[in-house]
Every structure is written in structure tokens, then in C-alpha cells.
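User: My instructor asked us to take a sequence, write out its structure as C-alpha cells, and then describe one feature of it. I'm not sure where to start. Here is the sequence I was given:
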Amino acid sequence: MVLKKLSSYFLLLFVLVNVAACTNKSADVVTLASILTQNNGIWKVSYAKFGDEEAPAGMYDGFTIQFKSTTDYITVNPKGAITPAILPTGKWKQGSGNTVVFDDNITVREINRVLSNSKIVFEWEVSIPGKVTTTYRIELVRA
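Assistant: Let's start with the prediction itself. The C-alpha cells for your sequence are:
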């Protein structure tokens, strides 16, 4: 039961990351959005942590997120890891600072503070009614 909930939250985070990469690009300005959309914008999840629990690799193995410059994002699970029946797709855009906004209502922040072409770390809080707020984190590497 807990794994199903965690996998649903992980998938939501994955979607949020994809939504946040959209912004105006300039050849001279490196933005989070420009990094996310480079090389077809495909990133794979290399690490996930939900609160104090590190997710087992089998929970996210094979998950990729594609950030399209059209502000669409697509999640893919080619290895059959635990997921909801329908994988999330949606819209993303760059928010203020190093944040990405998915589907106009979920904001994640890039926490490395140094933009990298090979690794992005996103973090966000999830509040469940009647429970404490939990911090989620995923690390993405270029696929």
C-alpha cells in the first residue's frame, strides 16, 4: 500500500520536473529550461527519496522524462517498474529562479544551485491531510 502511494507520488514528481523546463531560450543565457530540453530533453531517474525513505531502484528503474521545448512533458517506463496504469503527461514551464512548474500547480526546485548539463536534482514538499509535510527528491541524469 505504501509503495503504491510512493510510486504515485514519484510519478507525479516526475511529471512536475518535465513541466518546469519551458521558458524562452537565448544562445547566450543558460537556463534550467534550456538545459532540460537539450539533446531531445530526455532524462532518466537515477535516485529517488520520499521523506526519510530511499526508494528501491526497482521503483524507478527505466523511468524517463522528456522535456519538450513546446512545454509538453512525457514520462516513460520501458522496464515495467511499478507505476499507475496511466503515465503522466502534461505541461511544464520554468518558474522563478531555479524552479519548474508542472501543470500550473506543482512547483519543484532544482537544489544544486549550479546548473549542470548532466545532472539535475529536484525537490518538493507533499502535504497529505492529517499527516506531516514530506520532502521528496529525485535526481535526473541525461539519458
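For the description part of your assignment, you could build on this observation: Confidence is low (pLDDT under 50) at residues 1-13, 15-27. Try explaining in your own words what that tells you about the chain.
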